[in-house]
Design goal:
By secondary structure, the chain is mostly beta strands. It has 2 domains: 229 residues, no CATH class; 192 residues, no CATH class. Helices cover 2% and strands 43% of the residues. The protein has 1 helix and 31 strands. The strands form 7 sheets. Strands 5, 6, 7, 10, 11, 12 and 15 form a 7-stranded antiparallel beta sheet that branches. Strands 1-17-16-13-14 form a 5-stranded mixed beta sheet, with no helix packed on it. The longest helix is centred in the N-terminal third of the chain and has 8 residues. The radius of gyration is 27 Å and the shape is elongated. Keywords: Signal. InterPro entries: DUF3238. It comes from Ornithinimicrobium avium. This is DUF3238 domain-containing protein.
């Protein structure tokens, strides 16, 4: 995670995102809560370590002015998710935070009366300037880490400038009961001297809501407006995740000019092809092409598999006739997988597609490319490009009995785009623990 990028994305919070982590395998007894440590570094990045070794965390989501979600795996194969977010500003407009001087007890982090700023006196008055917005102003952060065994909450600060600000960031040491922790509305304890709170009283498949409350009663993490909803192991554990991509012609029939593009080349005027006569649908069996990628996480058949189908192309006699005068099926050889990486917790791959009308000897192919990463816990990200014909639709579903979720829907611009450079469409879609 780039420090400056992390800083800017964390700077302002305006949304709530559910944090959920799942164990990908049955956790061994050796996987104890004490193995995982969490702390903010001087740049406001959340560092998660196991037995003193930092875990490699992959950024899953960065929401404008909201948060950063990252995932990683322990040595035992358990998924670890971290969420970093800013303490909410009571003013809905993104105004610059200010810090005020005051009487602070040595060694104790003091919260201002409004829960948008925290001032650690141990950093000295030179690190804050009243009513100024500079690189040395400290923004309070809250981090949350969910594992299969516990939920860990940690407090921290980030220099507004995002470049370290002279070492002004990091995890805030505190003295209980400066920040009290409430779990599902019940008092659960306080941040310890290292600025962290550990909750080992968790049950798989259960969700918990945590609130952090300042010493003066100010809610640092506000219930309702800003919550941390942590889910422990068992919430989602897909054995398989399917990604389906279909291209289709929404019309009952379509016309193209004959001659240099479509047979018969000696004719004049238009020729007509059968369409799929439908709208968007995750389950329709009418399509031009269909590609299905299955990420299988079971130990007996772990891998990424591609199934592909191409429907026959039919040419009608004329604009109104139902008589089929020609029919052919294009090859599926150019529907391919590449860049496949398969692990116990995630799979990534590139799906590439280029299939042309077999009755149009010079027609360009229906082209698209998708880069995908799916996690067994229901998190997924997709990024695609496509030519602007025909309709394109993509869906994802897991093995937990959930329904298809829409990844992309892109409507036809013109069939001319198969032969003329109309550019390509680009799209992206991500899911956080919701593919089931």
């Amino acid at each position: 995670m780039e420090v400056s990028r992390n800083a800017r994305f964390v700077a302002w919070i305006s949304a709530v995102v559910v944090s959920a982590a799942s164990a990908l395998t049955t956790l061994p007894v050796a996987f104890a809560a004490s193995n995982i440590d969490v702390a903010f570094d001087s740049n406001g990045a959340l560092v998660v370590s196991e037995n003193g070794v930092s875990l490699q965390m992959t950024v899953m989501e960065e929401s404008d002015n909201t948060l950063v979600i990252s995932t990683g795996s322990t040595s035992s194969g358990a998924l670890v998710e971290s969420v970093v977010y800013l303490v909410p500003d009571p003013d809905p407009a993104p105004t610059a935070p200010t810090m005020t001087s005051g009487d602070y007890t040595d060694g104790v982090v003091a919260f201002t009366e409004e829960p948008d700023v925290v001032t650690p006196d141990q950093y000295g008055e030179e690190f804050y300037s009243p009513a100024e917005y500079d690189s040395e102003t400290l923004i309070p952060l809250v981090g949350e880490v969910s594992t299969g065994a516990e939920v860990i909450i940690v407090s921290g600060v980030l220099p507004v400038g995002g470049d370290g600000g002279g070492g002004g960031g990091g995890t805030l040491p505190v003295e209980p009961p400066v920040v009290e922790v409430f779990k599902d509305g019940q008092h659960a304890g306080a941040l310890d001297a290292k600025g962290t709170f550990r909750d080992n009283d968790v049950v798989p498949s259960h969700s918990y809501t945590y609130e952090l409350v300042g010493e003066d009663g100010a809610v640092i993490v506000q219930a309702g407006a800003y919550q941390s909803q942590a889910v422990t192991s068992g919430a989602l554990r897909n054995d398989r995740i399917w990604f389906n991509y279909k291209t289709f012609i929404p019309n009952e029939r379509v016309s193209v000019f004959s001659g240099s593009v479509c047979r018969p080349w000696w004719t004049v005027g238009k020729i007509y092809f059968a369409g799929d006569d439908r709208s968007w649908s995750a389950t329709s069996s009418r399509y031009r092409t269909r590609a299905q990628v299955k990420a299988d996480f079971t130990s007996s058949s772990r891998g990424v598999y591609l199934n592909k189908w191409v429907s026959s192309t039919k040419r009608y006699k004329d604009a109104t006739s139902t008589k089929v005068v020609a029919s052919a099926t294009a090859s599926s050889k150019n529907i391919k997988l590449s860049n496949v990486k398969m692990g116990t917790s995630s799979a990534s791959y590139r799906l590439k597609h280029d299939v042309a009308n077999p009755l149009c000897y010079a027609a360009g192919g229906i082209w698209y490319q998708v880069d995908a990463t799916v996690w067994r816990n229901g998190t997924a990200s997709f990024y695609g490009h496509h030519l602007l014909a025909p309709n394109h639709e993509a869906y994802v579903v897991g093995s937990q009995g959930g329904s298809y979720q829409t990844v992309a829907r892109r409507a036809l611009r013109s069939f001319v785009c198969l032969n003329v450079d109309c550019g390509t469409g680009a799209w992206s879609k991500s899911f956080s623990k919701s593919v089931a």
